[in-house]
Design a protein that fits this description.
Layout lengths: L8 E5 L3 H13 L3 E5 L2 H10 L4 E5 L8 H9 L4 H4 L3 E5 L4 H9 L4 E4 L4 H49 L10 E8 L7 E7 L5 E8 L3 H21 L3 H16 L5 E8 L5 E7 L4 E5 L2 E5 L17 E4 L5 E5 L16 H11 L13 H17 L8 E8 L5
Parallel strand pairs: 1-2, 1-3, 3-4, 4-5
Antiparallel strand pairs: 6-15, 7-8, 8-9, 9-10, 10-13, 11-12, 11-14, 14-15
């Protein structure tokens, strides 16, 4: 059995007793409950005790506060329930100037005397409906604020967790200068890089970009780190490591989620480098004569049940290096809405190599300066300190040249 909702409480304020009684009778007949006040001061006192659902307020009340003054005091009230109380002003004068004056005083609506009961009821119903919608919206906003606060706490916890899986430093390699950069769009991101020591003194650098952004992608980066560490314990071949990671990733997600990745095995003593990529942006080999792009030879991890990964080898001479990065480094849009192309990034990498156009920072290596210069050029292209995608990168240069 459903219950009948309580009748809305209307406070009728009019200094003329006869007019007030006529209004109260008409409103009672229309299904409302009414309280009465004969002046502005009395009305304010009743509102302080128990705010009504709506205030029906006469504009002209000589000898005390008029309707406009009462309305102004309500709108300035510290209690939001009182300050947003729906007010319909009753005025004996017609015309646009009077209507504007009522609305400027803070009234939600107005009715001209003599009052037509049907019109008054329609205006009251409208204002009560708007008030109910406003209260619902406020409730939703409060709920949204609580949800956002909880999300912020969850993201902060995720950020602290992800910080533990992002390397806090790079290996110290005699004859090499290394630098890295990690910058998620929000607290957490879907990019990750890491390094591992392989048998024979080689170092395996790898970088990956998970599907999506935010917390869900960050969870994939945690899984990626476990999978790469497990694979590197079974093989020292970049191509075989990618095949092993792909098999585990595919077994878990059945092709629903993807991971682009690039792996580089570096022999610091000889400068020999072996690389393999899976749907990832190219490895940029940086030489004094220009930049060479070594591209991925197979699709992203998780797409195929069996990955056919191929390796490519090269040797870095003194003064040469490599740049391992995620697509956030060229997913930059300028003021004209033009997205940076890979060729533009390659030009920027070439320009940043050995020619930092920013003032040097004490204690930084050539690789640090290279990354700092490159990031500065990207920010100038996009016209902002912030990027639209996560960033991760590793730069390595063999000592003996300009860097």
């Amino acid at each position: 059995m459903t219950s009948t909702p309580p009748a809305a409480d209307i406070l009728v304020v009019d200094d003329e007793r006869f007019s007030r009684r006529v209004l109260v009778r008409a409103l009672n007949n229309a299904g409302f409950t009414c309280r009465e006040a004969e002046g502005g001061a009395e009305a304010l006192g009743l509102i302080e005790e128990a705010p009504p659902a709506l205030l029906l307020l006469d504009y002209s009340m000589p000898g005390g506060l008029n309707g406009a003054e009462v309305c102004e005091q309500l709108r300035a009230h510290a209690d939001g329930t009182v300050a947003q109380l729906p007010v319909i002003m009753l005025t004996g004068m017609g015309g646009e100037e009077q209507e504007v004056f009522c609305l400027r005083a803070g009234a939600n609506d107005f009715v001209t005397k003599p009052v037509n009961p049907a019109v008054l009821k329609a205006r009251i119903d409208t204002q009560l409906r708007l008030s109910a919608l406003r209260q619902q919206l406020e409730g939703k906003n409060q709920e949204l604020a609580r949800w956002r606060a909880e999300l912020e706490r969850d993201l902060e916890a995720a950020r602290l967790t992800q910080q533990t899986i992002i390397p806090q430093g790079l290996p110290t390699l005699p004859g090499w200068k290394l630098a890295s950069h990690y910058q998620p769009v929000i607290q957490v991101g879907g990019d990750i890089y890491d390094w591992l020591r392989l048998p024979g003194g080689r170092i395996f650098f790898w970088i990956a970009d998970a599907t999506g952004h935010g917390a869900s992608a960050a969870l994939l980066t945690a899984l990626a780190k476990l999978l790469f560490r497990h694979a590197a314990a079974l093989s020292d071949s970049p191509a075989e490591i990618l095949r092993l990671v792909n098999a585990d990733f595919r077994a878990n997600f059945k092709g629903r989620l993807l991971l682009t990745a690039m792996g580089v095995a570096l022999d610091p003593a000889s400068g020999e480098l072996t690389m393999a990529g899976a749907g990832h942006p190219p490895l940029l080999v940086v030489r004094p004569g220009g930049v060479e792009a070594r591209r991925s030879q197979c699709p992203p991890l998780g797409l195929q049940a069996v990955l056919t990964a191929e390796e490519e080898s090269l040797t870095l001479a003194p003064g040469e290096g490599f740049f391992l990065f995620t697509d956030g480094f060229y997913d930059v849009v300028n003021a004209d809405g033009v997205r940076m192309e890979m060729s533009a990034l390659e030009s920027d990498v070439s320009a940043a190599f050995g020619q930092p156009d920013l003032p040097p920072v004490a204690g930084e290596s050539g690789a640090d300066g290279f990354l700092r210069t490159l990031l500065g050029r990207l920010r100038r292209y996009g016209g902002s300190e912030f990027f639209s995608d996560d960033l991760a990168a590793v730069a390595a240069f063999r000592a003996g040249g300009a860097n």
